[in-house]
Design goal:
heterotrimer; A alpha/beta; B alpha/beta; C alpha/beta; B: alpha/beta; Hypothetical Protein Ychn, Chain: A; five-stranded parallel β-sheet; 4 helices; 5 strands; C: Hypothetical Protein Ychn, Chain: A; two-stranded antiparallel sheet; 3 helices; 20% helix
Chain lengths: 130, 100, 136
């Protein structure tokens, strides 16, 4: 079965980011396909590589990156939500004339259409938020 | 249809809205702070007991455990599931509605 | 229903301004309209406040996005379901809501209301008919 995942909250602030990760991992381990994980609202903060949690705490951003690598997962951060919150990839950095970029490995920045597309392609869309 | 509720029933009305709009025969999964609704001896226990005859209630085990809610204290009929069974519930229902 | 077309329902349960969910939810609806899917929008709980008339953010310096709801008809988003119980609980009636309309191309472009006040039973039934439900 094909799943689409929507993550609406940032890491550490709300458990939704954790639950979404555990659900996605469990779905993949059960042999399901995850067509896309889409990050919206404050969920875009899951995609900043500048995250530096204390060493004895889970690294939510790295956890996503590793899952993406292991399963060739499509992880998309919404561009409009990302711009509002300062999540920038190299291309956006140049286009917006910013002095830094911060998108973590395995994430891509793209439009909201990717969320609708995930809804169309997936058999089930599962949403995690506040 | 699978409904998820992730809010404490003592803080937000998400559980009430879910119970108001879930058709009989629905699966209702309590996750995150939503699991506080699953324990006995609370002001919402009666509400859950009444709804248990219409719906199948589940509570996410890792979230119960994190909050120190022992399985022995759960309302009769509430089933404890893990993340894998959460996936099974989502796959087994035609759609998933998250009452955020 | 056409093959490959799904029923999308956007469920709004948040008031505007206090959090960004209503505004960013509306952005999803507008983008989603380009995908030629079957679209409806539900307003439940505090979501009904999004449709309140007379919103004025002049003194709070926030973006007043309530005029954008008027554009939904032009995007062929013409099925806006408002739960009656949610309205009543909040002391509102239909007269407190924006007058949102669309031109029905199948009926000589007659102007019709996009807003449908529905009971909880009707809302429960609508939810069961969807393929994809997105909550904001």
């Amino acid at each position: 079965m094909k799943f689409g995942i929507l993550v609406n909250e940032g890491p550490y602030q709300h458990q939704a980011a954790d639950t979404a990760y555990h659900f996605t991992k469990a779905a993949l381990e059960r042999g399901h396909e995850v067509v896309r994980v889409f990050f919206y609202h404050d969920g875009v903060n899951n995609g900043t590589r500048l995250t530096t949690p204390p060493q004895d705490e889970r690294n939510i951003v790295n956890r996503w990156s590793e899952l993406a690598k292991q399963y060739d997962l499509d992880m998309v951060v919404c561009v409009a939500a990302a711009q509002r919150r300062g999540i920038v990839d190299e291309e956006e950095k140049k286009r917006q004339g910013k002095d830094a970029d911060n998108l973590a490995e395995g994430f891509n920045i793209s439009g909201l259409g990717q969320l609708i597309d995930a809804g169309i392609k997936a058999d089930r869309l599962v949403e995690f938020g506040d | 249809m699978l409904h998820t509720v992730n809010k404490s029933p003592f803080e937000k009305s998400s559980l009430d809205t879910c119970l108001r709009l879930a058709k009989p025969g629905s699966d209702i999964l309590l996750i995150e702070d939503g699991v506080y609704a699953a324990a006995v001896g609370t002001a919402v226990e009666q509400k859950i007991r009444e709804a248990v005859s219409d719906h199948t209630f589940y509570a996410l085990g890792p979230d119960l455990k994190a909050r120190g809610i022992e399985e022995a204290r759960l309302i009769d009929g509430v089933k404890v599931v893990g993340y894998g069974e959460f996936v099974d519930l989502a796959a087994g229902n035609e759609r998933v509605q998250a009452w955020l | 229903m056409q093959d490959g077309v799904k029923k999308f329902m956007y469920v709004n349960r948040r008031a505007p301004y206090g959090t960004v969910y209503a505004l960013e939810g509306l952005e999803v609806i507008l983008i989603g309209a380009a995908f030629d899917q079957y679209v409806s929008v539900a307003f439940i709980d505090d979501g009904v406040f999004q449709l309140k008339t007379g919103q004025d953010t002049g003194d709070s310096d926030m973006k007043n996005f309530s005029p954008t709801y008027r554009a939904l008809g032009d995007y062929d988003v013409t099925k806006l379901y408002v739960e009656e119980e949610s309205l009543q609980e909040r002391g509102l009636t239909r007269d407190d809501l924006l007058d949102l309309t669309y031109e029905d191309e199948d009926d000589d472009y007659k102007e019709k209301s996009s807003i449908h006040i529905v009971s909880r039973a009707e809302m429960a039934e609508l939810l069961e008919q969807q393929d994809v439900i997105l909550n904001f």
